[in-house]
Amino acid sequence: MILTKAEAQFTITNTSTITLADLRSGDWPLQLQRVVKKNDTIYLLTFRDKQYPSNHNISQVKFPSLKQLRFLQQGLSYLMTADDGTEATYKEFSIKRTDDKSKKKPIPKYTLICSEDGDVTDIQQNEANALVNAINKL
After folding, report:
1. What is the extent of the structural domain holding 65?
2. What is d(CA 60, CA 116) in angstroms, rounded to the nearest whole number?
Protein backbone atom coordinates (compact mmCIF):
# COMPACT_ATOMS: atom_id res chain seq x y z
CA MET A 1 0.00 0.00 0.00
CA ILE A 2 1.39 3.40 -1.01
CA LEU A 3 0.27 6.50 0.87
CA THR A 4 0.44 9.83 -0.90
CA LYS A 5 0.02 13.26 0.57
CA ALA A 6 -3.37 14.69 -0.35
CA GLU A 7 -3.49 18.16 -1.85
CA ALA A 8 -5.32 20.74 0.20
CA GLN A 9 -8.71 21.80 -1.06
CA PHE A 10 -8.36 25.19 0.62
CA THR A 11 -5.79 27.49 2.13
CA ILE A 12 -6.14 29.08 5.53
CA THR A 13 -5.19 32.74 5.46
CA ASN A 14 -4.98 34.82 8.58
CA THR A 15 -6.78 38.04 7.75
CA SER A 16 -8.03 40.71 10.06
CA THR A 17 -9.59 44.11 9.47
CA ILE A 18 -9.53 46.60 12.31
CA THR A 19 -11.33 49.93 12.22
CA LEU A 20 -8.90 52.53 13.55
CA ALA A 21 -11.22 55.51 13.16
CA ASP A 22 -14.93 55.50 12.32
CA LEU A 23 -15.29 59.18 11.51
CA ARG A 24 -18.66 59.08 9.73
CA SER A 25 -21.22 56.36 9.22
CA GLY A 26 -24.52 56.06 7.41
CA ASP A 27 -24.89 57.29 3.85
CA TRP A 28 -21.59 59.23 3.83
CA PRO A 29 -19.07 56.96 5.60
CA LEU A 30 -15.48 57.90 6.35
CA GLN A 31 -13.36 55.17 7.94
CA LEU A 32 -9.71 54.38 8.47
CA GLN A 33 -8.97 50.66 8.64
CA ARG A 34 -5.94 48.42 9.01
CA VAL A 35 -6.05 45.18 7.01
CA VAL A 36 -3.58 42.43 7.90
CA LYS A 37 -3.08 39.44 5.58
CA LYS A 38 -0.38 37.00 6.61
CA ASN A 39 2.64 39.30 7.02
CA ASP A 40 1.31 42.24 4.99
CA THR A 41 -0.42 45.25 6.50
CA ILE A 42 -2.21 47.92 4.49
CA TYR A 43 -4.31 50.87 5.56
CA LEU A 44 -7.54 51.92 3.85
CA LEU A 45 -9.34 55.24 3.98
CA THR A 46 -12.89 54.45 2.85
CA PHE A 47 -15.39 57.14 1.84
CA ARG A 48 -18.34 57.86 -0.42
CA ASP A 49 -17.54 59.90 -3.52
CA LYS A 50 -19.37 63.22 -3.20
CA GLN A 51 -19.44 63.76 -6.98
CA TYR A 52 -22.32 61.30 -7.30
CA PRO A 53 -24.87 62.18 -4.60
CA SER A 54 -27.57 59.94 -6.10
CA ASN A 55 -25.25 56.88 -6.35
CA HIS A 56 -23.70 55.07 -3.43
CA ASN A 57 -20.17 54.99 -4.92
CA ILE A 58 -17.77 53.90 -2.15
CA SER A 59 -14.09 54.64 -2.78
CA GLN A 60 -10.85 53.82 -1.03
CA VAL A 61 -7.37 55.24 -0.81
CA LYS A 62 -4.91 52.41 -0.10
CA PHE A 63 -1.77 53.04 1.91
CA PRO A 64 0.66 50.12 1.53
CA SER A 65 2.54 50.97 4.72
CA LEU A 66 2.38 53.03 7.88
CA LYS A 67 5.03 55.30 6.38
CA GLN A 68 2.68 56.09 3.46
CA LEU A 69 -0.27 56.62 5.83
CA ARG A 70 1.78 59.16 7.78
CA PHE A 71 1.88 61.34 4.63
CA LEU A 72 -1.89 61.77 5.04
CA GLN A 73 -1.41 62.70 8.69
CA GLN A 74 1.40 65.15 7.87
CA GLY A 75 -0.60 66.73 5.05
CA LEU A 76 -3.68 67.26 7.21
CA SER A 77 -1.58 68.58 10.10
CA TYR A 78 0.11 71.09 7.81
CA LEU A 79 -3.16 72.20 6.21
CA MET A 80 -4.70 72.83 9.63
CA THR A 81 -2.25 75.72 10.02
CA ALA A 82 -2.29 76.84 6.37
CA ASP A 83 -4.50 79.29 4.52
CA ASP A 84 -7.66 78.45 2.59
CA GLY A 85 -6.78 77.15 -0.88
CA THR A 86 -3.46 75.55 0.17
CA GLU A 87 -2.96 72.07 -1.27
CA ALA A 88 -0.81 69.08 -0.30
CA THR A 89 -0.22 66.81 -3.30
CA TYR A 90 1.02 63.22 -3.19
CA LYS A 91 1.27 60.44 -5.78
CA GLU A 92 -2.01 58.71 -4.83
CA PHE A 93 -4.06 61.67 -3.58
CA SER A 94 -4.18 65.37 -2.84
CA ILE A 95 -5.77 67.31 0.01
CA LYS A 96 -6.86 70.91 -0.34
CA ARG A 97 -8.02 73.24 2.39
CA THR A 98 -11.43 74.47 1.28
CA ASP A 99 -12.93 76.48 4.13
CA ASP A 100 -16.71 76.73 4.42
CA LYS A 101 -17.34 80.48 4.21
CA SER A 102 -21.13 80.30 4.52
CA LYS A 103 -20.88 81.05 8.26
CA LYS A 104 -19.82 84.33 9.88
CA LYS A 105 -16.49 82.74 10.83
CA PRO A 106 -15.07 80.41 8.11
CA ILE A 107 -14.99 76.75 9.16
CA PRO A 108 -11.92 74.75 8.05
CA LYS A 109 -12.68 71.87 5.71
CA TYR A 110 -10.38 69.63 3.65
CA THR A 111 -11.14 68.13 0.24
CA LEU A 112 -9.44 64.82 -0.54
CA ILE A 113 -9.08 63.87 -4.22
CA CYS A 114 -7.83 60.46 -5.38
CA SER A 115 -5.26 60.79 -8.17
CA GLU A 116 -6.12 57.53 -9.92
CA ASP A 117 -9.88 57.84 -10.40
CA GLY A 118 -10.69 61.38 -9.26
CA ASP A 119 -12.99 60.35 -6.40
CA VAL A 120 -13.61 63.18 -3.93
CA THR A 121 -14.71 63.61 -0.32
CA ASP A 122 -14.77 66.44 2.18
CA ILE A 123 -13.24 66.04 5.62
CA GLN A 124 -14.58 68.35 8.33
CA GLN A 125 -12.24 69.84 10.95
CA ASN A 126 -13.35 67.48 13.75
CA GLU A 127 -12.92 64.48 11.42
CA ALA A 128 -9.45 65.68 10.40
CA ASN A 129 -8.48 66.02 14.08
CA ALA A 130 -9.71 62.49 14.83
CA LEU A 131 -7.91 61.08 11.77
CA VAL A 132 -4.61 62.74 12.73
CA ASN A 133 -4.98 61.47 16.32
CA ALA A 134 -5.73 57.91 15.16
CA ILE A 135 -2.64 57.85 12.92
CA ASN A 136 -0.48 59.36 15.70
CA LYS A 137 -1.37 56.40 17.94
CA LEU A 138 0.02 53.87 15.46
Report:
1. 15-136
2. 11
List pLDDT tens digits, range 7-66: 556 666 668 999 999 999 988 999 999 999 888 999 999 999 888 877 778 899 999 999
In a domain, 113, yes or no: yes
Phi/psi at 124 (5° precision): -75, 165
CA distance 3 to 32: 49
Report the CATH number that the domain containing residue 106 is assigned in CATH: 3.30.2450
Q: Is 12 left (phi over 0), alpha (psi -120 to 50) or beta?
A: beta
Q: Does 27 fall in a domain?
A: yes
Element (H, E) at 18: strand 15-24
User: Would you say residue 51 lies in a domain?
Assistant: yes
